[in-house]
Amino acid sequence: MKDIRQEKVLIAEKINKYFRIPVDFHVLKDVSFSVRKGEFVTIMGKSGCGKSTLLYVLSTMDTDYEGRLTLAGDLVTGKPHDQLARIRNEHIGFIFQFHYLLPEFSVLKNVMLPALKLGRKSEAEIREDAMEKLRLLDIGEQADKLASRISGGQKQRVAIARALINEPAIIMADEPTGNLDSRNSANVFDILDKLSHEKHMYLLVVTHDEEFARKTDRIITMADGKITRD
Amino acid sequence: MNWSLIFSISRTHLLSRRKQSIIAALGVTFGIGTFIILVSFMTGLNKMLDGLILDRTPHIHLYNEIKPSEKQPLDYLEEYASDTRIIHSIKPKQNQVRIHNALPIIDYLKDDNRVLGATPQVQAQVFFVSGAIELNGIINGIDIQEEVRLFNLDNYIVDGDPKDLVRNDNGIILGAGLGDKLSVQIGDRVQVTTASGGTFQLKVIAFYQSGIADIDNVQSYANLKVAQRMMRAGNNYITDIQVKLKDINNAADMSGELSRQFNLTAIDVNTANAQFEAGNTIRNIITYAVSVTLLIVAGFGIYNILNMMIYEKMNDIAILKATGFSGVDVRRIFISQALLIGFTGGILGLIFGFGVSVLIDHTPFEVEALPTVKTFPVNFRLLYYVIGIVFALIATFFAGYFPARRAQKIDPVDIIRGT
Ligand SMILES: Nc1ncnc2c1ncn2[C@@H]1O[C@H](COP(=O)(O)OP(=O)(O)OP(=O)(O)O)[C@@H](O)[C@H]1O
Ligand SMILES: [Mg+2]
């Protein structure tokens, strides 16, 4: 991949997606937009309008769609799964709507795994990085606990730390503050905001939190599978 | 790809499902353990039986067979060559049982570098006289030192010292059954009459027991010279030559060669013991069939447990894939779990199998028929342990492969969206 921090970091062209089961259902209808580097974008819209579905397509995890998706000038549509996994590992940090951690591993190990997979740094360095990210999110003291033994809000923050570990160019988040109190929610916003402006990461965040959205660079509003306002 | 990362993930998975992992490993342990026990015991038994036979059987036995001539006089007449010839009442050819030129033949054999040793024998039909009763018997005139060296005669001596035959020209080693019938002890004298009417006094120096009653009731051993005297013959009178080779596999070829060269009947050990070979083969088949069955059962256990594990780990698989692990990585994680189970269970199985084999090896097993056997026979061979662990790894690899393939194909979005 070329330098991902070039002008148009993501281009979605006429994305259409259908669910066939239980009934034929047109979820995403001709969704087209692009994002420039360092932009902090939020997607808003009513529940069930297709925000998460769109995010899965953009994250390369969902390959069952029509249209073209370009990341950093590379067309990713139609690439084999293993190559897409590599792209996700290196360039995309994903924060799920539901905090998905590996329950049998420690908090620290959860954060370290994507970096160990990338294999660019030594294990000691990765451990250092992971601790730093955890401290950044104010959960450094939970590092050695099992991931199944911490609260929902803490899990959410561990998931954010994990998304940051490989310093990806793109961070996609599906309601990252959904489980957090206002103090932590503000903290998460500050961290994400800093990333976009200082490290020029591109952030695409789905949220219902109006206050959160208003502080970002750009709001995309969706309704019924279409972009209604940008 | 980074194998230490893959192993560290699969180790965590296995350790967090400790009970299931242990049960899966125990399945392999029992499969491999039973294989080791069975194969060690069965081949031990085979080796013991082979030993019983092969110890005492010459690799090649040369003698003169009394039989009708292959070519009857009529066959030499050319004018009838094309006719159908019918001859009635064919009799065996008048022939000597002694081997012509036996001593040069033995020297010749001893010079052959395939040969470990060759010993002369003289068989004499005799009667053992006890009061008014005459018992039928055979005295084998032997060279006792060669007989001990080549055919382990000393292993079958239940009482007395066979080497006494060297010091005592007129000694005799009696078959144990014969000794019982004559009710004689070591040091007693027995009277022997020969077919030609001669009478000899021999001193009992040892008892011999082969384990086969028919033999022990008639067989006895004396010095070669004594047997020759009984036959009223000189020291070149020899009825049998027994050959032991360095490599038993040459027996068949060499026996044909010797038979042609010296115009003698030559029986090689494989022909003499064909039925034992068949027995060995059948025992081996049973051993491997039972072991393979056990391992297949263990394999299904692993297959089930991994399938269940993958079902429980759908979320983990989705997360790993979402954060950049490829399908191949996920497959390797689960295959390595199967291999870890197979390796741990297999090693434990080897230890378990070895332990039980040692126990069996020390279990007393004494039967009168087998004087040399004191405990159950067990064959300890490194090869079986290598086969065992390789088999464990192969079986668990296949048991893990199919569930792992399923994990490889899981679509992360389906799971992440699902909740
Ligand atoms: N696996 C599926 N099969 C069929 N239909 C689905 C599936 N997943 C989602 N949908 C439908 O697609 C639509 C979009 O779902 P999506 O999860 O993208 O909504 P969303 O905008 O993220 O909502 P929310 O804000 O509640 O998370 C919904 O109407 C939903 O019913
Ligand atoms: Mg959603």
Task: Please tell me about this protein's structure.
The complex is a heterodimer of chains A (230) and B (419). Chain A has helices spanning 51-58, 81-91, 107-118, 123-136, 152-164, 182-198, 210-214; strands at residues 8-19, 25-36, 40-45, 66-71, 74-75, 92-95, 170-174, 202-206, 218-223, 226-229. Chain A has 230 residues and is α/β, with parallel strands linked by helices. In chain A, strands 6-7-8-3-9-10 form a 6-stranded mixed sheet. In chain A, helix 3 (107-118) runs parallel beside helix 5 (152-164). Chain A is globular, with a radius of gyration of 17 Å. The model of chain A is unreliable at 1-6 (pLDDT under 50). By secondary structure, chain B is of the alpha+beta class. Chain B folds into 2 domains: 3-54 and 276-417, no CATH class; 60-79 and 92-270, no CATH class. Chain B has 15 helices and 10 strands. Chain B has helices at residues 3-16, 18-56, 102-111, 144-151, 164-167, 176-182, 213-216, 224-230, 251-262, 269-272, 274-312, 314-322, 327-361, 382-409, 412-418; strands at residues 60-63, 115-130, 133-142, 157-160, 171-175, 189-194, 199-208, 219-223, 240-245, 265-268. In chain B, strands 2-3-8-5-7-6 form a 6-stranded mixed β-barrel, surrounded by 4 helices. Chain B is elongated and about 105 Å long. Chain B starts with a helix and ends with a helix. The relative contact order of chain B is 0.18. The model of chain B has no long low-confidence stretch (mean pLDDT 85). The A-B interface holds A 52-53, 56, 59, 61-62, 81-82, 85-86, 88-90, 94, 96, 98, 100-105, 109, 113-114, 116-119, 162, 166 and B 2, 5, 9, 12-13, 16, 315-316, 318-329, 412-413, 416-417, 419. The structure holds adenosine-5'-triphosphate and magnesium ion (MG). Magnesium ion is lined by residues 51-52, 97, 174 of chain A.
